[in-house]
Design a protein that fits this description.
Blueprint (H helix, E strand, L loop, with lengths): L1 H10 L13 H12 L15 H12 L15 H14 L17 H13 L5 E6 L5 H7 L3 E9 L10 E3 L1 H7 L4 E5 L13 H7 L1
Parallel strand pairs: 1-2, 1-4
Antiparallel strand pairs: 2-3
Helix pairs in contact: 5-6
């Protein structure tokens, strides 16, 4: 019986592709916050209630007699929503390209979902993905799970009198050397998390 149980447990082990990635810094932070009761600035805890008009709209939708309000939405995003997104971002891009809402807009369940979808859909084994340090903890494991190899380039403080996140900069030569024929993507978080650095137009042009 013990050997049978062990055989079953072995089959239920974490998949090899996740090994070494199962730890999460936020799980550690939560436990530390419970143990020591500090002022936790590491995570956002909303302290406001849902606006009344949102509850009213939800109530009307749930209690209404329109059966179409109780169906699956379009998987890539509700047509009305993706059309609005297309209109907004086409204008922000200076109308140099009109974004097709039905083929160029994808609505996901948050930034985690968006990034995971992009990496899983585009990164092949052997591809390299550039990650700017410091970085949010999910970037590296997502790249590795997709079969890619992360390449790290650091933001470094410029000068001894660093006072602001804007003083942290990428070294142009390090940035240039990070790119090669294996490079599939670069993950750019602007503003940077956790530094809060906002990349200037010059810096963004250099990245491009």
């Amino acid at each position: 019986l013990d050997s049978l149980l062990q055989e079953i447990m072995d089959k239920l082990q974490l998949a090899d592709k996740y090994k070494g990635l199962e730890k999460n810094v936020w799980v550690e932070f939560i436990q530390l916050a419970k143990d020591y009761q500090p002022l936790n600035l590491g995570q956002g805890f909303p302290d406001d209630l849902v606006p009344e008009f949102v509850l009213d709209c939800l109530r009307d939708a749930v209690k209404g007699d329109n059966i179409m309000m109780h169906q699956y939405a379009r998987a890539f995003g509700h047509p009305r929503l993706v059309t609005a997104i297309s209109s907004l971002y086409s204008k922000l891009m200076g109308n140099i390209h009109t974004i097709d809402p039905m083929s160029e807009v994808l609505v996901t369940n948050g930034a985690y979902g968006a990034l995971f979808t992009v990496l899983m859909g585009h990164v092949n084994p052997g591809d390299e993905v550039i990650i700017i340090e410091p970085y949010f903890d999910c970037y590296e494991p997502m790249v590795r799970i997709a079969g890619g190899s992360p390449v790290f380039i650091p933001l470094l403080p410029s000068g001894s009198g660093t006072q602001s996140s804007k003083d942290w900069k990428l070294d142009p030569e390090t940035l240039k050397n990070a790119f090669n024929h294996k490079t599939k993507a670069i993950i750019l978080n602007n503003p940077n998390n956790p530094l809060g650095k906002v990349f200037s137009k010059t810096e963004l042009e250099e990245l491009c």
